[in-house]
C-alpha cells in the first residue's frame, strides 16, 4: 500500500482518546509486554476496536522483547532475548521521525504501526516508538531495546520517549482532536510536561508569573490509572539524574512543584496533573486513597477481553447459545441456559488440550479425571506461589484421604528479582519431595498463549497474594470465561466477584486495611487446606451437578461483568470527559 494513504487514513480515524502505556500485549508474537499491565492495555484497545471507539494508543518498540524464560533442572531461571522481527507484523511509518532531547542528545524516533481490528470492522491504531535508527548513536539506538531491562537512566529515558515523544508523534501525524490523554500507570506521566509547555502562556498575556503554567488546562485533558498498591512500585528519580536528562527541557522548580520536592515521583506528577485518577478495583481504590491522601481517587475494576480469553471450546458453545456475546459481553450472564453436559464436555476437551501440551513439553502425563489446580503469575514474593506447599504433610494427607490432586504452575521472575527466582527453585524442590503422590508441573515461559491454555484447561484457579497487594488481578477473570472457578485470597477483583460456593471460594478473611498482612501466611494456608478438604475436593469428586453449576455461575456472574466491555463503559461514563468546560448546573426554578 502507498504509505501516503496510511497517513490520511490514520488522520481520518479522528481519535479522541489517546492511551499511553509502557507495555501493550496484543498478541503472543508481538512481545512488547511483560505481564498484567500490558495484557490489560491490549485488552482495552481490543474492546475499543470492537465498539468502534475513536481511540489511539502509544507504546515503545522493544526489539529484544521482555525475555524468553528457560528453566534448568533445579528450577534456575535463564533469560534469553526474544527473537522477533517487527517487519513481520508492523508497518514502519518511515515518513515520520520525531525527536526528543535527552540530556545533550537529540534522539530520533520512528513510529511503527499495528492496527487492531475489532469484531465489527472498528480499528484502533497502535504506535510503537523505536529509537533504533541509523541517525542515532549506538547508545541511543539501544534505548528502546528492552522492556524494564535497564537502570534508572534507561528507565527515565524510555519514559521521556513514551510521554514526550508520544505526544510529538501524535502532532506529527496531525492527530489534533484528542480530548483525553489516558496515562496507563505513571510511566506515561511525562506527557503532562509536554502539554504544560504547549499551553504555556507568555508573561505578557497574564502579567502574573503564577499564571504562566496553565496546569488547569493540562488537568482537564489527562486521566490517570494507578495500578500499584505499594509505594516501592512507583517510579521515582533522583533530581540529579532528572536535571541531567531534562534540565534543558523544563525548569526543575516547575517539576518540583508538581512531581514532589525530594525526587521526581511519576505518580505524584500524574496525580497532580490529571483530572481524574482511578484505581483498578474497589479495594485498590481504598488502599490508594490512604496512600495518596488529599486526592479523589475513583475505581474502575479491570476486565479482560472476552473473545480473546475464551478458549475455542467455549467460544463454540457461546456462539451457539449466546450469539452476539463477542460484542455484547453482558450476554454471558445467560450461560445459565447452557446444559450441564455441554459445559462439562467443553471443559474436558480444553483440559485435554492443556494436558497434551504438557505431555509434549515435559513428558509428564496428567490424568484428566483428577482435580487439577492452576497457578500462573509473576514469580515474586507477594504472590506467595509456595503458600499451597507450606505444609507438605498436610497436602499429602489431603490427597490420601479426600481425593487426588494435580498442579500446573507457570510464571516468570523479573531478571533482577532474586527472591522471585528462588521461589521457582523452591517449587522445583517441593515437586521432587511430593513426586510419589502429586504430579506438579511448572511450565516454562508464561506468556499470553500459555496463559489462555492454562486458565482454560485446569479445574480450579488458585490465587494467593498477600493482602492488599493485588491491585486487581485479571487471570482469574480469564479462568471464569472458561467455566473455571476461582479459589483466591479476598483481594483485588475477587472481593467483587466472589460468592462463596457459587462462583468459587475465598481463602482467608477480607482485608482489614491498607497494611500488609505479613502475619497471615499460616492462617491463610490453614484456610486453604480446610476449604480443599471440606468443600472443593468433595464437590468435585462426589457432587458433579453442583460443581458444574459453579462452573456455569463463574461464567454468568463473573465473566459477564469482569470484561473490558463493562470496563470501557465505566471509563466513558465516569472517567473520560468530552467537554469539561461546559459542565454547568441548571438552576431549579424554586431556588
Ligand atoms: C493475564 C496475564 C497476566 C496477569 O494476570 P494476573 O492475574 O494479574 O497475575 C500476566 N501475564 C500473562 C502472560 C497473562 O496472560
User: How many individual helices?
Assistant: 23
Name every ligand kind in the structure: pyridoxal-5'-phosphate
CATH homologous superfamily annotation of the largest domain: Glycogen Phosphorylase B
The protein's oligomeric status is single chain
What does the average pLDDT come to? 95
C-alpha termini separation: 63 Å
How would you sum up the global shape?
globular
CATH topology type of the largest domain: Rossmann fold
CATH class of the largest domain: Alpha Beta
> Which structural class do the helices and strands define?
alpha/beta
Compute the CA-based radius of gyration.
Answer: 25 Å
Low-confidence stretches: none
Q: What's the architecture of the largest domain in CATH terms?
A: 3-Layer(aba) Sandwich
Number of strands: 20
Major sheet: 10 strands, mixed
Proportion in helices:
40-55%
Number of structural domains: 2
Amino acid at each position: 500500500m502507498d504509505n501516503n494513504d496510511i497517513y490520511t487514513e490514520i488522520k481520518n480515524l479522528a481519535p479522541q482518546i489517546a492511551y499511553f502505556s509502557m507495555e501493550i500485549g496484543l498478541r503472543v508474537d508481538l512481545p512488547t509486554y511483560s505481564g498484567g499491565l500490558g495484557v490489560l492495555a491490549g485488552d482495552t484497545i481490543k474492546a475499543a476496536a470492537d465498539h468502534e471507539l475513536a481511540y489511539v494508543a502509544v507504546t515503545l518498540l522493544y526489539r529484544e522483547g521482555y525475555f524468553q524464560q528457560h528453566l534448568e533442572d533445579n528450577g534456575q531461571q535463564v533469560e534469553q532475548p526474544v527473537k522477533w522481527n517487527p517487519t513481520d507484523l508492523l508497518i514502519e511509518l518511515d515518513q515520520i521521525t520525531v525527536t526528543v532531547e535527552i540530556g545533550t542528545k537529540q534522539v530520533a524516533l520512528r513510529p511503527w504501526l499495528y492496527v487492531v481490528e475489532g469484531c465489527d470492522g472498528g480499528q484502533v491504531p497502535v504506535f510503537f516508538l523505536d529509537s533504533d535508527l541509523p541517525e542515532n548513536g549506538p547508545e541511543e539506538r539501544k534505548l528502546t531495546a528492552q522492556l524494564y531491562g535497564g537502570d534508572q537512566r534507561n528507565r527515565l529515558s524510555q519514559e521521556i520517549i513514551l510521554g514526550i515523544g508520544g505526544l510529538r508523534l501524535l502532532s506529527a501525524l496531525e492527530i489534533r482532536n484528542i480530548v483525553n490523554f489516558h496515562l496507563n500507570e505513571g510511566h506515561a506521566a511525562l506527557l503532562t510536561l509536554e502539554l504544560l509547555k504547549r499551553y504555556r502562556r507568555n508573561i505578557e498575556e497574564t502579567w502574573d508569573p503564577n499564571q504562566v503554567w496553565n496546569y488547569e488546562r493540562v488537568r482537564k485533558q489527562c486521566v490517570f490509572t494507578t495500578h500499584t498498591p505499594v509505594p516501592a512500585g512507583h517510579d521515582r528519580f533522583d533530581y540529579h539524574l532528572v536535571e541531567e536528562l531534562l534540565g534543558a527541557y523544563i525548569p526543575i522548580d516547575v517539576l518540583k512543584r508538581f512531581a514532589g520536592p525530594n525526587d521526581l515521583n511519576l505518580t505524584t506528577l500524574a496525580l497532580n496533573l490529571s483530572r481524574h485518577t482511578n484505581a483498578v478495583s474497589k479495594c485498590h481504590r481504598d488502599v490508594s486513597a490512604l496512600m495518596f491522601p488529599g486526592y479523589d481517587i475513583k475505581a474502575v475494576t479491570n476486565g479482560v477481553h472476552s473473545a480473546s480469553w475464551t478458549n475455542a471450546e467455549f467460544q463454540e458453545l457461546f456462539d451457539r447459545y449466546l450469539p452476539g456475546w463477542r460484542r455484547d459481553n453482558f450476554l454471558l450472564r445467560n450461560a445459565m441456559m447452557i446444559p450441564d453436559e455441554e459445559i462439562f464436555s467443553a471443559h474436558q476437551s480444553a483440559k485435554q488440550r492443556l494436558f497434551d501440551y504438557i505431555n509434549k513439553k515435559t513428558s509428564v502425563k496428567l490424568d484428566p479425571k483428577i482435580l487439577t489446580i492452576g497457578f500462573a503469575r509473576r514469580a515474586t514474593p507477594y504472590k506467595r506461589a509456595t503458600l499451597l506447599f507450606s505444609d507438605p504433610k498436610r497436602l499429602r494427607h489431603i490427597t490420601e484421604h479426600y481425593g487426588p490432586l494435580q498442579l500446573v504452575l507457570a510464571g516468570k521472575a523479573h531478571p533482577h528479582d532474586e527472591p522471585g527466582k528462588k521461589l521457582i527453585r523452591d517449587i522445583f524442590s517441593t515437586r521432587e519431595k511430593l513426586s510419589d503422590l502429586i504430579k506438579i508441573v511448572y511450565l516454562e515461559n508464561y506468556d499470553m498463549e500459555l496463559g489462555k491454555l492454562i486458565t482454560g484447561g485446569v479445574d480450579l484457579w488458585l490465587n494467593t497474594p498477600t493482602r492488599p497487594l493485588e491491585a486487581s488481578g485479571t487471570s482469574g477473570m480469564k479462568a471464569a470465561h472458561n467455566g473455571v472457578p476461582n479459589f483466591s485470597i479476598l483481594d483485588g477483583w475477587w472481593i467483587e466477584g466472589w460468592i462463596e460456593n457459587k462462583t468459587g471460594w475465598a481463602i482467608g478473611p477480607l482485608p482489614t486495611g491498607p497494611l500488609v498482612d505479613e502475619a497471615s501466611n499460616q492462617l491463610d494456608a490453614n484456610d486453604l487446606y480446610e476449604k480443599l478438604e471440606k468443600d472443593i475436593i468433595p464437590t468435585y469428586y462426589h457432587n458433579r451437578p453442583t460443581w458444574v453449576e459453579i462452573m456455569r455461575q463463574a461464567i454468568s456472574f463473573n465473566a459477564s461483568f469482569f470484561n473490558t466491555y463493562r470496563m470501557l463503559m465505566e471509563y466513558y461514563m465516569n472517567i473520560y470527559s468530552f467537554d469539561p468546560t461546559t459542565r454547568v448546573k441548571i438552576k431549579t426554578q424554586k431556588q
